[in-house]
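I am writing to request your help with a piece of structural work I have in hand. A protein sequence and the structure tokens that stand for its backbone fold form the material at issue. Please examine both parts with care and let me know of anything in them that strikes you as inconsistent. The record follows directly beneath this note.
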Amino acid sequence: MLRLAVRGGRRWGERCGLITLSDGKPFLWVHAASVGEVNAAIPLVEALLAHYPCCRLLLTTVTPTGSARVEQVLGARVMHVYLPFDLPGAVRRFLKRSRPILGVIVETELWPNLYTACARAGIPLLIANARLSERSMHGYQIVPVRRLIRDILRKVAFIAAQSSADAVRFCELGASPERVEVVGNLKFDMPPPRGAQHTAMRWRDAWGKQRLVWIAAS
């Protein structure tokens, strides 16, 4: 963890929007905050790479562990930088230097300056695998916060909600119903690890087919 923190500190400029990306193909931009979001984004990233070979893919994260996961799974197939702080100057520098033609935010990252800057630059934003817990919903209903969240959500081109309950909550906070659709959880589209099925079959043969097996996972 210390090694990851030190390495993240060396890339401090990225947090201020000081990034260097080679010129050429346009960028599709996907943001996944940390390891869990990166794992959820993998099927989406793979699909984008397959269907849009004319574009490059920029993947941003917030945490060093998320960055390490991108490097481990996707390597040089994508460009990776840290998402800048949600400050007007940092966000403007990031968008000016990356020039994405589309932004996809995985799960729920609501950054006022980032969303406003994307709207002004004409960059459509989508929220994929969108979720909004009841607890978060209550926090967002405080009057000043609710107005801010409503303004943010109205800048989003499309929200792909995990469940109907999530979709209802987004609409109650101000998202346009015609821009919200229930599409399920991206994590269910993840392929199992290579060799996992073979290993499971060997275990089943060793333990016997009548034995009950309990699997707990997060």
